[in-house]
Amino acid sequence: MSRFACVWVDCFAAAAAERCEPALRAGPLAVLGPAAPAARVLDANAAAREAGVQPGMTETEARARCPALAVRRRVEEHAASGRRALLEAAASVSPRVEDWAPGVVHVDAAGLARLFGDPAAVGRRLLGRAHAVGFAARVALADSRTAARLVAARARGAVTVVPPGRAREALADAPLAVLGLDADLAATLARWGVTTLGELAALPRAGLGTRLGPAGLRAHDLALGRDLDPFVPWTPPPFWEEAQGLDWELDSLPALAAVLEAVLGRLCARLAAARLATDALEVALELASGAHHALSVALAMPMGEPGPMLTLAALALEARPPAAPVTRVAVSARPLVARAGQGGLWQPPAPPRRALAAVLARLAALAGPDDVGSPRVEDSHRPDAHALVPFTLPQDAPEAPGERAPRRPSPAAAEGALRLVLRRVRPVRRVDVETDGERPVRVGGRRVVTCAGPWRGSGEWWDTGVWARDEWDAALGDDGTLCRLAHDRRTGEWYLDGVYD
Amino acid sequence: MVLPGSITEIVGRLSSGRTSLLAACLGEVTGRGAVAALVDADSALDPASVARAGVDLARLLWVRCGGRRDVALRAADLLVRCPGFALVGLDLGETACPLSPAVAFRLRFAVERTAAALVVVGRRRVTGPAASLVVETVRDRLEWAGPGPVPTRLGHVRAHVRVLRARAARAPGAAPLGFCA
CA-CA to A105 of 20 to 30 Å: which in A22, A99, B35, B126? Predict the structure, then answer.
């Protein structure tokens, strides 16, 4: 047996504005349309409607009826983000949801009672998820989407459950206005004295079709709670986006961070409602100059808390600030399921991933993103062939003490000696060298006490990066500095490669 | 030699083995699976030679500062405040200037909280009384090797470490060191 739920948010445009600016919930609010030629009320919240504010009024008229009215221009991003948030909240309860209209979501509730309990429990769960993303909703459950939607539209309580097979009775008292019929059809039915869905459903269907045509039959089906259109499931996008359009331009990073905090808060609430996390953020800024500024923020681990995300995004913006004042902020996240992990029993404590991510971001902002990472020796004989790769915590746990295989000591370790390390001179410094034959005898005016070499090497002769050089280890001058010299055999020049230390 | 939650300084002249001693400490820490960091003021680290010295490069975070001392100090300050790094090396190179007592003790209090070991390497002492252990590496002699009378390779560097300051009374006064090229 099919069961459907409908999640209904009253005055959705106003609710979406309140979601982005929660302080507006405290009083009457009207959302206005375009300013030209005269700003008219598009939507109003319950407090404003109680004071007499209705959609279609001019702003002046609305303010005259409700002096305490707060007004906001309609921001497309608020409505779009709110609509997606409501869908995602419903999708976290059932895999099949339908986007019917702004603030109206149909949910296929078949089988959900086995997961969550009775139908009322399913409704309460949907209600809780909607509340978690910032909407005060109503939920109705019935045999069809139409019945559930019509019941939810005029329900008094938060959760209404229509028993199976009782949709017609549940809709009988509903006024015809809930169907949203066109004016001519509504006027005709009014002339006939039909004012409720029950009266419309009681009319003979054949006669209704003869007199009113397809529109009349469609109205009759709706009055009976029958679904006319196929269910169109909504597919979640690969990235979840939360945006904030701004009435004013932001030209400082602290102000931008405050807006980002609000946007990330809403995005994380959506993720939390769906029990998801994210490991990458995309921040897109629209600038007053008309340009766009986009940057990626890689998170070290899947997370759902806005605090660390804000820190990382603010540091990324600090490293790459926008070139002009900002007029719109959008953050998108790739949702994924976070899996809990456990460290190894023999593994020494490692930096917490969140703290490490913040420290790496701060270090990148401080020293430069190309100067922070883990060194990696390249598979090449070219001198100083190395790369700096992003630092990540190694996943392989060291061996337990009992499993550790005995290592064969190196000759140096067998003697109790340590390995001598070279300090590189970067960039490589050219030096003047006097030679006796091919052996260096003076380096930059300093006498070479002893030297050993040459250690000859060459490579990449098959490519454009050909190199060939001799290396000498030399003890210099009076202080005995032990350095490595390199003689480029292609150019004949000498370089100070590094100092042994 | 290096104690968690304290500052250790390794000072000495060039080619005395101070960087090799730091590499040995990094190798010991990363070899047991812990994570270490190296703040390199002069960007002088040679990854190939420290890898040969036993450092697990995958467990080493390298911060290159390109000669900017202030950046190196701020980076070290960030790292010692992040829990989980067993050892943070701060290589100040040849132009190490003494830190103000406020900065030095700020570092010390930070490592005491996170139990990280901060090892500062430089030509001279910089942290003053904030350091728990200060050792100086002194080179004794070089040993060259080769089949004939003319040396063809560097053999060993013989050196010793001398303790200049130790808050723990058990530290020995001096110990020999050998470095194999």
Answer: A22
Is there a domain that residue A202 lies in? yes
Alpha carbons B93 and B53: distance in angstroms, whole number: 19
Instruction: Tell me how many domains chain B contains.
Output: 1
* A357 → chain B, closest CA residue: B82
According to DSSP H, which parts of A172-234 are helical? 183-191, 197-202, 205-224
Cα(B114)–Cα(B133) distance, integer angstroms:
18
Comparing CA positions, the residue from B173, B142, B159, B133 lying closest to residue B16 is B159
Q: Which residue has the tokens 């070899």?
A: B31
Distance CA A351, CA B61 (A): 12
CA–CA distance, A440 with A470 (Å, rounded to integer): 11
Q: Are residues A182 and A81 in the same domain?
A: no
Shared domain check, A193 and A270: no
Q: Are strands B35-40 and B60-64 parallel, antiparallel or unpaired?
A: parallel
Phi/psi of residue B62, nearest 5 degrees: -110, 125
Query: Could you identify the residue written with the tokens 């909607």?
Result: A130
Q: Please give the residue range of the domain that contains residue B156.
A: 7-180
The angle subtended at Cα B135 by Cα A423 and Cα B4, nearest 5°, is 90
Residues of B within 8 A of A486 (CB-CB) are none
Beta carbons of B78 and A391 less than 8 Å apart:
no
- Interface confidence, given as ipTM, is 0.92
**DSSP letter assigned to residue A58:** B
The structure's pTM equals 0.64
CB contact, 8 Å: B11 with chain A? Answer: no
Q: Is residue A151 within 8 Å of residue A178, measured between CB atoms?
A: no
The encoded tokens of residue A384 equal 């100083």
B26's enclosing H/E stretch is helix B18-31
Per-10-residue mean pLDDT of chain A, 501 residues long, equals 89 91 90 80 91 90 92 86 91 92 93 87 93 92 93 90 90 88 90 91 91 91 89 88 85 90 91 86 90 86 85 87 90 83 72 83 88 93 91 68 48 67 90 90 89 89 89 86 92 92 89
What is the layout of strands, in order, in the sheet containing A41-44?
Answer: A41-44, A29-32, A70-73
**How many interchain CB pairs under 8 A, A with B?**
195
Query: Do the beta carbons of residue A258 and residue A264 sit within 8 Å?
Result: no
Q: How many C-beta atoms lie closer than 10 Å to residue A297's C-beta?
A: 20
In a mutagenesis test of the B interface, which of A386, A418, A439 is the best target, namely the one with the most B β-carbons within 10 Å? A418
Angle between helices A76-91 and A253-273 (to 10 degrees): 30
Q: CA-to-CA distance for A121 and A81, rounded, in angstroms?
A: 27
Report yes or no: B45 at the A interface, CB cutoff 8 Å: yes
A110 & A54 share domain: yes
β-sheet bridge partners, residue A242: A331
Of all residues in chain B, the one with the smallest CA distance to A350 is B84
Residue in A348, A376, A422 nearest the CB of B33: A348
User: Does residue B39 contact residue B74 with C-beta atoms inside 8 Å?
Assistant: no
A352 contacts B83? CB cut-off 8 A: yes
Task: Point out the residue among A371, A397, A481 whose CB comes nearest to the CB of B33.
Answer: A397
Q: Is B88 on the interface with A (CB under 8 A)?
A: no
Same domain, A9 and A59: yes
DSSP string over A112-147: HHHHHSSHHHHHHHHHHHHHHTT---EEEEESSHHH
Q: Which residues sit opposite A292 in a β-bridge?
A: A286
Smallest CA–CA distance, residue B167 to chain A, in Å, is 26
Q: How many domains does chain A have?
A: 4
3-state secondary structure labels for all residues of B32-64: CCCEEEEEECCCCECHHHHHHCCCCHHHEEEEE
Q: For residues A484 and B15, is the Cβ–Cβ distance under 8 A? A: no
| Same domain assignment for residues A178 and A158 | no
